[in-house]
Write a sequence for this structure.
């Protein structure tokens, strides 16, 4: 059994443990990070039938007191109503500041449970038990927690680093193909950001035999960025590659288009824009680089375009967190393995989207 551990040097510092069969051992593995206490497991209606009893049993065997809160699955639950119910649950269970919340599930669960932990009693510990590829490669690490508002995605939240992340790769075997593809989008984004070699491993499809190594590479890269810029004042903004347009696509769809699919389309649109506006480096290579990114997106079963017009996407994107006054920061791929931040007037955003909106 191959187990990989990546140490994240934030405050608090914590380990991300990646490998098969870990949920059955989560109780004993958490003992070093979280002293015995009341562990409140937060999960959704899709994950609960699959893994909740395994997690509860492991935690109890390790000596934790355990309770569980289950909310309806889906992005539609990522709101104040669900957050309020989780907070009321924690209060009813009489959790104290020495207790802990465990997020068992994908990105929505991690965000909801993490934000509840940040707010309850002005902050209690929480741990992440990701069960989707998207949460494994991205959202379970770094301490971002949030809910959606009517105006847009992740507009109310807090930074709170987990005390531990335990990623059981066996959970990925139960994912529907479209949910798996959501995570592949974030992994591919990481390759475009940091590594030609990582990108190449996914360019013609994501092989199950390489999942653990790919997850570990994605987590290690993100951990380094977060250590240097925990509160997203500079470098961490690069992790938003594809997200400004992606979040706009989600908003325009009424959140019916999944996050990873929207980010993939946002990545492809921004890549075409970068090519057409001459922002990609190496004139003889830029068309090939852009073509490789777009082709990889499609090979992974993800969309490379959006049905919503540039004006609508630009309007939705103006609610994005990266906006500051009359400017907004976008992430531009200059080549595979290197991206740059560009701060532009908000009035230019629509024309940039237009430059990458249509497929050739």
């Amino acid at each position: 059994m191959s187990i990989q551990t990546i140490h994240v040097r934030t405050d608090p510092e914590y380990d991300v443990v990646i490998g098969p069969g870990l949920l059955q051992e989560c109780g004993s593995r958490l003992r070093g990070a979280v002293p015995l206490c009341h562990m409140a497991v937060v999960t959704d209606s899709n994950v609960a039938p699959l893994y909740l009893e395994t997690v509860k049993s492991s935690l109890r065997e390790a000596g934790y007191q355990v309770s569980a809160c289950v909310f309806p699955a889906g992005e539609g639950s990522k709101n104040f109503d669900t957050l309020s119910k989780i907070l009321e649950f924690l209060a009813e269970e009489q959790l104290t500041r020495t207790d802990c919340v465990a997020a068992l599930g994908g990105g929505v669960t991690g965000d909801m449970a993490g934000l509840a932990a940040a707010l309850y009693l002005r902050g209690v510990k929480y741990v992440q038990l990701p069960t989707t590829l998207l949460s494994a490669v991205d959202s379970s690490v770094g301490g971002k927690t949030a809910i959606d508002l009517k105006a847009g995605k992740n507009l109310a939240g807090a930074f709170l680093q987990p005390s531990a992340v335990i990623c059981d790769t066996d959970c990925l075997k139960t994912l529907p193909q479209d949910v798996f593809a959501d995570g592949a989008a974030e992994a591919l984004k990481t390759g475009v950001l940091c590594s030609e070699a990582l990108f190449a491993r996914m360019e013609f499809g994501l092989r199950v035999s390489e999942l653990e190594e790919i997850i570990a590479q994605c987590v290690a890269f993100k951990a380094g960025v977060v250590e240097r810029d925990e509160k997203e004042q500079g470098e961490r903004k690069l992790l938003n590659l594809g997200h400004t347009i992606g979040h706009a696509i989600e908003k325009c769809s009424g959140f019916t288009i999944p996050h990873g699919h929207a980010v993939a389309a946002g990545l492809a649109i921004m890549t075409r824009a970068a090519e057409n506006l001459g922002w990609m480096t190496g004139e003889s290579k830029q068309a090939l680089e852009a073509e490789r990114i777009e082709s990889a997106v499609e090979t992974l079963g993800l969309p490379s375009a959006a049905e919503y017009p540039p004006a609508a996407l630009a309007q939705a994107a103006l609610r994005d967190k990266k906006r500051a006054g009359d400017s907004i920061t976008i992430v531009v791929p200059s080549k595979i393995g290197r991206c740059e931040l560009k701060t532009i007037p908000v009035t230019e955003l629509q024309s940039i989207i237009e430059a990458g909106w249509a497929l050739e």
About this structure: The chain has 13 helices and twelve strands. The chain has two domains: 4-175, 178-203+229-357. The longest strand covers residues 327-335.
